[in-house]
Protein: CBS domain-containing protein
Amino acid sequence: MTVSPQLPLEIVMQLFKRMGPRVILVEDHGSLVGLVTVKDVLRFIAMEKPGYHHPSWDERGGLDGLLEELWSVIRGVVDRLGEKFAGLRSRR
Structure:
C-alpha cells in the first residue's frame, strides 16, 4: 500500500485501522520517499503539543482511547490472519 506525502495523518491512521497493513509506503511522483508504521504514528501523536485533542482519544487525557484504537487495529489483523490460516487448513 502506498500513499502520498501530503496525505493527512488521520487518514493514514484510518488505513492502518481498516486495512491492517504492517507498513505503508510513502511515494512521491513514483519514487519511494519513506515508510510509516503504526508505531511511527503513535509516537508522533504522543509527541504533539499537550493541548492537542485527537478525536479518538477520551476526555481523561487520551491514553485509554489511544490504547483502545491500537487494540482494535491489532484485533483486526489477528482476525484476518485467523481467517487465512483457517482457509489453509481446509485445503488439506
